[in-house]
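Fold this sequence, please.
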Amino acid sequence: MKKALPLIVAGLLAILPLLGLSSYWMHILILVIMWSVIGMAWNLLGGYCGQVSFGHAAFFGVGAYTAGILYNKLGISGWWGLPISIFVVTIFALVIGYICLRLKGPFFALGTLAMGVILRVMAENLTTITEGDLGIMIRERTWIEKTWYFYVILVIALLSFFLVKKVIESKLGYYFVAIREDQDAAESLGINTTLYKTIALSLSAVITGLAGAFYTNYMGYIDPKIVFALHDISIVTIMVVMVGGVATYWGPFVGAIIMVFLAEIIRTIPKLGAAHHTFFGILLIVIIIFLPNGVVGDWPKLKRFLRIGRAG
């Protein structure tokens, strides 16, 4: 049952468009699945390998601009950005990894944060390639209805889930966890920590880049302040994983559901819509205090609490 759970969930999700959901609800579902993909990518690097990145907006933005530039400059479909972003984002990840993976702990986090900012500034100023702050617009949408966009991101999510699971349950996963628990001890055992951190970073970056390329095709418009945004991409990605459960398979999915729905609820409250980041911060503090392993990681504790609540 446990092994079949991902396929059961995917099957249930796959039939949702057949229920005649409105365009708004389809949009919400697409956002939930897209954020779960980005969360899975961050979880691989930050949750399992212990390398906390504050710069995943860099990989998201590179993937998004790969699709946008292919469409805007070469006149080919932005969907080619999905396969091509794998190579482009990998190159960027190797460069960023070469610089940042020499750093440890908070210095690595600050290094990745700086890389995200540098790429945003570059995108703003390389106007002949990126159109700068004007951004890139996909003028011809592939589909008017959201149904096929939903299935595309669902397939990306499924592939990402099984890739992460396969990696974590292989020898690579043991190396990642060993590095997270004690990098010096891992090195003393002969594990090439730089190599395996680079592999984790590259895999994480590629998955994030795929989500970025999808975003360009789905939303139809990107600019540097959207796709390289520190608070709206990098920080929210971390929160999705923290809320759902770090180093758990289902944590990013649960976290994405909570964060997307919470954002939508807060935005509907008059005069509080713009303050959703404040509520996200409060939620994160509450989660860290009462559920430090996230909803999925502390699910047994949460179940005990709910049983006590009913008994009272």
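The two ends are 33 Å apart (CA to CA). The mean pLDDT is 88.
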